[in-house]
From TrEMBL, chain A:
Gene name tied to this protein: SEPTIN11
Source organism per UniProt: Monodelphis domestica (Gray short-tailed opossum)
InterPro entries given in the database record: G_SEPTIN_dom, P-loop_NTPase, Septin
Domain Septin-type G: 38-304
Protein name per UniProt: Septin
Keyword Ribosomal protein attributed: no
Keyword Nucleotide-binding attributed: yes
Family note: Belongs to the TRAFAC class TrmE-Era-EngA-EngB-Septin-like GTPase superfamily. Septin GTPase family.
GO MF annotation list: GTP binding; GTPase activity; molecular adaptor activity
UniProt-annotated stretches for the region Disordered: 403-429
Signal peptide per UniProt: none
Automatic annotation (TrEMBL), chain B:
PROSITE patterns the UniProt entry points to: G_SEPTIN
Domain of life: Eukaryota
UniProt KW Cell division keyword: yes
Name of the protein this chain belongs to: Septin 12
Ranges where the record places region Disordered: 1-21, 329-356
UniProt keywords, alphabetically: Cell cycle, Cell division, Cytoplasm, Cytoskeleton, GTP-binding, Nucleotide-binding
Pfam families in the record: Septin (PF00735)
The UniProt record lists the keyword Cell division: yes
SUPFAM superfamilies to which the protein is assigned, alphabetical: P-loop containing nucleoside triphosphate hydrolases (SSF52540)
Biased composition (Basic and acidic residues): 347-356
Amino acid sequence: MAVAVGRPNNEDLRNLSLSGHVGFDSLPDQLVNKSTSQGFCFNILCVGETGIGKSTLMDTLFNTKFESDPATHNEPGVRLKARSYELQESNVRLKLTIVDTVGFGDQINKDDSYKPIVEYIDAQFEAYLQEELKIKRSLFNYHDTRIHACLYFIAPTGHSLKSLDLVTMKKLDSKVNIIPIIAKADTIAKNELHRFKSKIMSELVSNGVQIYQFPTDEETVAEINATMSVHLPFAVVGSTEEVKIGNKMAKARQYPWGVVQVENENHCDFVKLREMLIRVNMEDLREQTHTRHYELYRRCKLEEMGFKDTDPDSKPFSLQETYEAKRNEFLGELQKKEEEMRQMFVMRVKEKEAELKEAEKDLHEKFDLLKRTHQEEKKKVEDKKKELEEEVGNFQKKKAATQLLQSQAQQAGAQQTKKDKDKKNFFFM
Amino acid sequence: MAGTSKRSTSPHASRSSSPKASPCEMFGYVGIEAVLDQLKIKAMKTGFEFNIMVVGRSGLGKSTMVNTLFKSKVWKSSPVNKLGPLPQTLQLQSVTHTIEEKGVKLKLTVTDTPGFGDQINNDKCWDPILNYINDQYERYLQEEVLITRQHHIPDTRVHICVYFVPPTGHCLRPLDIEFLKRLCRVVNVVPVIARADSLTLEERESFRWQIQEDLKNNGIYVYPQKCFDEDSNDKTLNDKIREKIPFAVVGADREHLVNGKCVLGRKTKWGIIEVENMAHCEFPLLRDLLIRSHMQDLKDITHNVHYENYRVHRLNESHLLTKGAGWVTLSPPTRRNTGGSSRGQRWNRDESENAC
């Protein structure tokens, strides 16, 4: 039976008019319901010097107290600390990850300060890429750790950006959405603030730093995004303490000369930041991270690994070949590693044997030495004993001789004395 | 609108779990829920895509059904000339339209299969259809593995295959069973009893019961598959639907006056069969399932399960495929033989629990 597969002939896409209510207008709601049941991930990276107010701002933004201890200024290098929290508002579950740069700006030599940050961001992209390239993968289940927004905290000097800031932002702008903010803005006066902001923006532009652009292509958000963009970088003040203003409690910082209200738009741009970051553009930040920054990373990484897009004719083969090549490479590496390990094992065994032999030899030598010394001592002792015996023998002989002599002498003496006595007695008679 | 802060103890917490996430209470409204609106706006801007395939013998009212579902003339003209001879070969024909309702744009692609089951020898008549479905997966895969890929990969994968069962009133025919067996592993399948106006209500019920038995005995899992029920709510909702599958439907694209109202229906000498009247036929159930409640779910299962299955197979077998020119068409029999390993993770895990 001859079977022909008709290639789908797509007639021109034409708009069809519906004669009644079909019901697919519920599609966005269906989509949203699915998303809410899965939950959302949002990851914020806070880059800024120690003590500039990163943790406080996070606490203020999300209206909660994320427990953390203030960092010391003695860190030897920059390291990134990530913490995850689960927040829930009505039926939306948000898995929020806040990544902090501990020790940023504290070192004397800050040349390498940006490196750990770039490495961290790349590592998250790499993890996602690895998951995507797996054969058996579960992307719908994947806990996305890629950084969606980078809040860069600028110190409120009032003059201009520090060179560390420029260098770091330049390294990060192609990897993450950067939103620059001026921290501790209550230390700058209003007129200085305006000058400071324009100085910063012009420096960013002249150095070619690409910060995150709030999207203006959809009518619903274009207007608010456009108005807010004018106020970049946002000058923020963070505070978790409440002060009584009028008859309400509000988050504020109390000074002897006045009270700085966090949520008062005349005092600082905190409300603007919250609007832009959370209420208006959270989804866009996530999308930009995925479609722009991640795709760029992926493209570079794949090209690095040797993958290529060939022309349409051989597309199915590039897939085959590259995967096969990868598999072979992997197997080769595995074998190489095995060989290495085997060799190392053999070498170690040899070393150990040699060591043991050495030790054995030492022991033998010691034993021999001991034995010899022992024998020598023994000989000495025996010699001495002999000597002693000789002496004793001599002594005995001498003693015997002297005794003999003595006894002879005594006898002789006794006779003599007797003679003498007799003589004496003879005379006296 | 004070934010009520709850500890997240939802059963889905395990889905996207990270070992170090700690629940946090918020002391006031933050505005996180605005992300839902942002999501909606973005989705409505990009628009949606939906691809439906209708399979069945000719004369079962497939084209009419599609017209009724989407309340428009989807086919400019009938894909098969009704008066002419039946096509000698099975041809698949697709047509794409953009329809809009209340600001929601939908790019709808309907694929028809005239000639299916019409030959004297229908052996392997499912092959062209399976090839077509796999070709769509292949296309998507090729786009996905490109180095420089598009922001939005055009989705031509078949999201649902509606299989029209002729209203014999007895049981499924061998052709039906063979086809459904093969297809339910690759795509979401929903069988419907076509031209149900030729069956009385009792006949419908017994036919439906018989078909359900046949499906169960042959290990055919139709949409909504039991193993993909996410939680108890889903389960209860889907159980109700599963009880009624296959729906007994009637299609009509003409309007008639009934009790002063204009309704879609078929006019016969003995009465007017109202398509949207639940007492007459179960078309509303089909429409609700496909469009109003489960459309997104159909797309998700196609993307997360069927497409992933195809991808796993394709990547595992890539070193076995011979080099040739043009597309590499995978023949279904190779994949059937590899049995259990061809199913996705979710499928595998739940298969052991109970039959879907």
